[in-house]
Amino acid sequence: MTQTDTAFMYLAAMQKPDFHTICRFRSTHLGPIKEIFSQVVTFCKEMDMIGSSISIDGTKIKANASPRQSKSSDAIEKEIDKILKESIETDKYEDEIYGGSTPYQIPEELVDKKKRLEKIKAAKKQLDEEKLKKVNITDNDARIMKHKDGSKKPSYNCQVAVDEKEQIIVAAEVVNEENDLHQMEPMIQNVKNTLGCKPTIVLADAGYFSYENLEFLQEEGIDAYIPDNFYKAEKEGKTRKFRKALFKYDEEKDCFHCPAAFEIPFTRIQKRKGEPDLRFYVCSYCSQCVLKNACTMSEKRTITRDPREHLMKDMRTKLNTEKGTEKYQKRMSTVEPVFGQMKHDRGFREFLLRGKRKTGIEFVMMCTVHNIKKIADFIKREGKNLKGMLKMIVGGGSKGWNKGEFERE
Ligand code: SF4
């Protein structure tokens, strides 16, 4: 396009980089690419395209690696043995042909084997160090993850924080942890780094629910809307057994009262690393109870109690209000379309680069493209003059950050 399209020729200042140059640039310039992402987000902020509420979510994108190359420790050791045996055979064959003299070049076959062996050994080292069940030989950083269609592929978990106002991605990160649970804190930090301020409202699905996350958001003074894993099923009455909410806690006696009106006493404590003790309450009347089939499959029903459970209770109460339901519903229409536009409209279903660092660059580039497209749509829709706006921002005549909507750090 830098040779045929006038607009691209102008933008590239008549330079004609070939695909190798572009590819090299893309895989080595994480810093500048992140900086461009930040500048585009700042521009959106100046254009008043960013509000106060963000939705955080993750999607799995397939790594540039075959699932067949994901191997266990045993399989890797077998392959190492096989390659070493084949190399010895090739060496013998070479000796027969060349005798004691050294050939000028190592045969190509042997060079390939050596490269493969190095890759496998690196993968084995990672597998042992990180205590993984399997590791992918082609892309050691990728992990087998379950996709929405049920398939399992070597993939990365791509996290985004999307602003509600114009679906601008304000933070993006690639991680190789399948679960979203530990991504809340880094993503909020990421948002702060890009915007220079924290959001006032955060929406996320049950994958982000943990007492640690709720406590963190509370400390940050962020109004969070995150349901727990059983919230939806319990609200829709889809739980097969008596849900925990039906067991009333008696603070004075430190016991629960079950639906059959029996008292369930405290029995033991489970110590947990880095978390408060978990308290167990076990019922002794289940064997004689007429409601047992609806309550438990076990001999005795056990109820656990975490001292932070009031956080879940408060969250459920908040989500059940009209305002809470309305706010949480916004999550779907904010972040889900962004993944749809990336995957369906732009065909971003698989990474072209390998390794966590390089896939991180590729993803940030995709997010920058997404934001630029949103700016173009916004200018068209609002009938704004881009040239005038750029002049205003570059000349320092902008009206500044959205101080009223975002709390400055
Ligand atoms: S099964 Fe046990 S815990 Fe459940 S309702 Fe009956 S007595 Fe209560």
TrEMBL record:
It holds the Pfam family DDE_Tnp_1_6. Residues 110-140 form a coiled coil. InterPro entries: IS1182_transpos (IPR047629), Tnp_DDE_dom (IPR025668). It comes from the Archaea. The keyword Coiled coil applies. This is Mobile element protein. Keywords: Coiled coil. Residues 258-375 form the Transposase DDE domain. The keyword Coiled coil applies.
